Amino acid sequence: MTAPSSGDLAGFFRPRNVALVGASDKSGWSRMIFSRFADYGHEGEIFAVNRSGAPAHGLPGYTSVAEIPAKIDIAYIYVPAQAAAEAIRQVGAAGVRHAVVLSSGFAETGTEGVRLQAELLAAAEAAGVLMLGPNSLGFANIADRCVCTCIPTRAPVARGRLAIVSQSGALAGEFGKFAHGQGIGLSFVCATGNEAQFGIAEVLDYLVDDPSTGAIAIYVESIQNPGRFTAAADRARRVGKPIVILKVGRSAVSGAVALAHTGALVGDDRIFDAMCRRYGIVRTNSIAEMVLTANFLEKVGPIDPPRIGVASLSGGACGIYADLAEMHGLAVPPFAEATKAALRGILPDFASTLNPLDVTAQAVQDPTVWSDAIPVLVRDPGLGLIVTATPVSNNAVDLASPMSGLHAVLEGYRKAGKPPVLCNYSIQDCSQAQSDARKAIGIEIVLPDLEFGVRALAHLQRWSESILRGDPASAPGGLAEARPTGERQVLEHLAAHGAPVIPALIAHSAEEAAAAAEAIGAGVVLKILSPDIAHKTEAGGVRLDVRSAAEAARVYGEVVAAARAHSPSARIDGVIVSPMRAPGLELIVGVTRDPLWGPAIVVGLGGIFAEALRDSQVRLLPLGPAEAREMLLELRGARVLSGFRGAPPADLDELARVICAIGEAALALGPELAALEVNPLRVNGREIECLDGLAVYSNSTA
Amino acid sequence: MTAPSSGDLAGFFRPRNVALVGASDKSGWSRMIFSRFADYGHEGEIFAVNRSGAPAHGLPGYTSVAEIPAKIDIAYIYVPAQAAAEAIRQVGAAGVRHAVVLSSGFAETGTEGVRLQAELLAAAEAAGVLMLGPNSLGFANIADRCVCTCIPTRAPVARGRLAIVSQSGALAGEFGKFAHGQGIGLSFVCATGNEAQFGIAEVLDYLVDDPSTGAIAIYVESIQNPGRFTAAADRARRVGKPIVILKVGRSAVSGAVALAHTGALVGDDRIFDAMCRRYGIVRTNSIAEMVLTANFLEKVGPIDPPRIGVASLSGGACGIYADLAEMHGLAVPPFAEATKAALRGILPDFASTLNPLDVTAQAVQDPTVWSDAIPVLVRDPGLGLIVTATPVSNNAVDLASPMSGLHAVLEGYRKAGKPPVLCNYSIQDCSQAQSDARKAIGIEIVLPDLEFGVRALAHLQRWSESILRGDPASAPGGLAEARPTGERQVLEHLAAHGAPVIPALIAHSAEEAAAAAEAIGAGVVLKILSPDIAHKTEAGGVRLDVRSAAEAARVYGEVVAAARAHSPSARIDGVIVSPMRAPGLELIVGVTRDPLWGPAIVVGLGGIFAEALRDSQVRLLPLGPAEAREMLLELRGARVLSGFRGAPPADLDELARVICAIGEAALALGPELAALEVNPLRVNGREIECLDGLAVYSNSTA
Known about the structure:
Two copies of one chain form a homodimer.
Chain A: H1 6-12, E1 18-21, H2 28-40, E2 46-49, E3 61-62, E4 74-77, H3 81-93, E5 98-101, H4 111-127, E6 130-132, E7 138-141, E8 146-149, E9 159-166, H5 169-181, E10 186-191, H6 200-209, E11 215-220, H7 226-239, E12 243-247, H8 252-262, H9 269-278, E13 282-284, H10 287-300, E14 308-312, H11 315-328, H12 337-344, E15 357-358, H13 362-365, H14 368-379, E16 385-389, H15 396-400, H16 406-416, E17 421-423, H17 432-440, E18 445-447, H18 450-469, H19 486-496, E19 505-507, H20 510-520, E20 524-529, E21 542-546, H21 549-566, E22 574-579, E23 585-594, E24 598-605, H22 607-613, E25 616-620, H23 625-633, H24 652-667, E26 673-684, E27 687-690, E28 693-697
Helix pairs in contact in A: 1-6, 3-4, 5-10, 6-7, 10-18, 11-18, 14-16, 20-21, 23-24
């Protein structure tokens, strides 16, 4: 059975009649499960199935699903692990096409569990049953009131546009509870568990199409179907539906924990980051950040330009905002000159016109400062969003207080024709009544806290940038080219794809070496050319700074003799003669292939920087010049690019172009390329040159 | 008038009878001010004073404080700025010794305001009135029910052991509101405003002595009295009373905002960080982090060893914890072998014994896993605290649920003889009723959220370390030594304080140069010795890699001639002959003097690292070897110290000793030293040597 389509899942996630297979009044679990249907507002019917056909939870009991006198849309199975495969067979035999297996004791518990899970999967496939789980707490399609889950929740569940998908059932419940506390409504919640048949990727694909869902929050330890995942993420980016993810595995310890936990592969975390960047997926670090950011991006949508201005009547709040912005990579662009001039006419003399804007306590005395300043800020052509940081606490007293100036703030947004976007100072719960009180005065979008606010705004900035940037560079088509091996072949392959490489002449004799040195002029380097000698320097096969034709002729003989002495059986094809380059800024550009996410490119500072700092940036391929430039500027040591030890500033546009060319050269070698490395890529102002190249291929037969 | 003592403030902060100077029923401000007394639970009497003697807020009115037929402990003044000085004079004349000036329009508003503030201060001093403000919202001594403030609050205020002091009135209210939402009680709250007469430092000093206060949370833009501040912080560290600070000014923009806001100097932020480290002050970045951390440190106290173990039944929560720990510098030490062996007897076979410990869903089926595992963890000799990450949500339903295993967790702590320390997954409000429900089952210490929990635990780790470390190295006594100038004098001064410096012989003739080269052996460097030539290389006064006595004799003449040609009037004292050192790892060690916090030392990687990365660490002087070692290990490029380009690993103990010696050499030069720099400090395994040194003095007369 192939993984289910988005349409298959649209059917799966809309059950009306649910059979509880394993229902029993004696089981605390079963009682809890039954109670969840009311908590989440299930509208279909529920039926109890157990071995003895005993009634349970006030429902008549049946000994099998086949006995139930109604069409069953889904079976919720929580019999012991050993009995689950047989339960699936019975469910299939009764004509039920969908099941959630809550039972645990499968792949998460070791070898015997892996065997049981394989047996369960085979049973489901043979019976034609589409199965979520095992070890899955299930799902609640809150928008459609179709429930099949025991994910913990606060009742009543608030309906809204946020969907939550989690590989951990416990955390799925936590995300929902946190959202509830913040007055954020949900459309859907699902815990995917062991994902024997389908998981995060397929559910994401479904949710991109789900009209009830406006934003998708995902907790994940590892992704089983990366192709499906990225295709769905790409569709979400195109329609501006935010995907916000919390993935563990950033730290070595956490990787070990997740391995212990799920037995699943935790891919290289930096490549996962690169994948998120490529597809505009927002990556967060905590439950609160994930839920608040997803909700905020859904409410605001992408902004253009992707830059944000802020105003507050607390200078202290402005200071906290500015510090947090620097910490989290949120731009704080200065206002346009016209904006500043207009603000000077509104604010008292002693006020500044910096972003974040401190409107000063003057706005308490005279709230028209607010209603006049906000339209001025909204008109600033450099800003795509104006946020007002002000206590919009959840206390009705504060909302009504004239001290807060809130009515003048709202008047300002009304005059500007924009919905108000407010940021409270510190996080507090927001009840339904509080949320209703806000809505009654026109407040729908509130960031609950300066810190989570800045983090959400930084995500909004980057997400908007990713949407504005449009589609990533497309991969070159065509068949894989012949495999270059050896330094010269790799450099020639790079040159064919537009990367400048160091010139080289091949000499087959002392005379040719002399002529080559003459032709190149100044100092040259001689290197032995042999497919059989990997470590040329150790073989005495490299000589630097050869200064004349005569010296080149002599050194030719020495190099060949040394190489022969070192490797008597090696085939020697001559000697490479290249210009000697002065020491300068060196980069390393490498392409690697991740088993999950495919080819990725890494750019780092070379030489001692590489040794000391491992300062590098990673992106997925293919890559456009804007992204390549961004990689360079995001290096920690980026300032060496703007002129280093007397060298001219690097030509960043040209350097970005060369990096893209290296990426294309790698892609042209097809999926068997395991690694391509240019080390060093020499940079001296506008002179950019690959000095050495290496290609490694995987062992599989092409 | 000198700044008030802690005892003076103990009197100031205990008013019973308060006069509201400026009270009026017509003023919204005045009505709000009056209502705060009840919100904070004031127990003394309140009197209304205004120009016309009209009654206000249901109180009889008086035209001046002198008319009031009761002893007034404090006057709360909110007349217009222009009238404030006269109000203070009247208050003083009536024999009232304390006042809070709420009126704004002083130094925060520009030149005219500065003048008014000086006039106000002079009036207060002349009248013998101790004054908080102007532009101060006042204070509430919540523990003693003595109130003189209009800081916004939630009523009823919860009494507890956290004190809040803030330079911003708006934020003081926010901190209190956030604490209220989290069920954290307060002992004291104060907004210091413009701090004309006293401010943060003096209030901190008072709170260190206040028995009702267990932890102090401070919001600050700049500190006016650094000596008083650090002395108070030092006392707090000795008694284990945590100080948790939120200071803006990390970013350039925020510095500008604070300047615009208060006109106060924002000191160099990295030196402020160094000061916090020195005195065990916990520095935080947001309102929630500050309040939650202060409360948590107060509840738990310092731990020894300063290392933390965690257990959870959610592998996902363990993963999030581990990632956040790495991000925030919280150690996640492995358990001891005996701990792991004992855990293997408790947990299912497929479980790991990593920290954070995933007890697996087994603990849901069999809660004795919890009650057995927790005592094992508590006994681990490497850990000072065991935290259980589990949903302790604020919902009574969850607290009582057998699913959570909470009772078994509590049983585990009871068996181990420790109070339970729990960490909820995500932040939610905690009402008084919820807090009471927790206490009823023995839960007093709850971190409300995985992220804020990890941040608070990382602070607990560092704070405990700072307390265990004990007193910082003490400053060497004695008078300032004679000022060394010039490279050789500075190096000799460093050598006298125990820092190894490159050997040098002074040659006054070609013969002496030859003899010196002979004595040193191998290659030597010759440098002109002249008090008048600052840039020796440009003057042709430096020659590297001189290989023989004969060459040294010749080069002596060339160097002297070149220097004479370059600077004909320079006094030439000879030529320095030193050994030529091979290139190697270079550090820069510099001492600078901060106007607020005194001498500070910076250690950074030298050479191209310095240019490219500005990778450095800053600490206040004096400095102990443990701190110096920590500075080295916290460099981003620290890995170059463990062996670089074939060089042996640096001897960190010796290197730390040398850094301390440089610090002592700087301190010995007294307060007129503006900067002392060793650049480079050459490191080659155990060979550590100052190659060049520079000292700069301030212009003031010593």
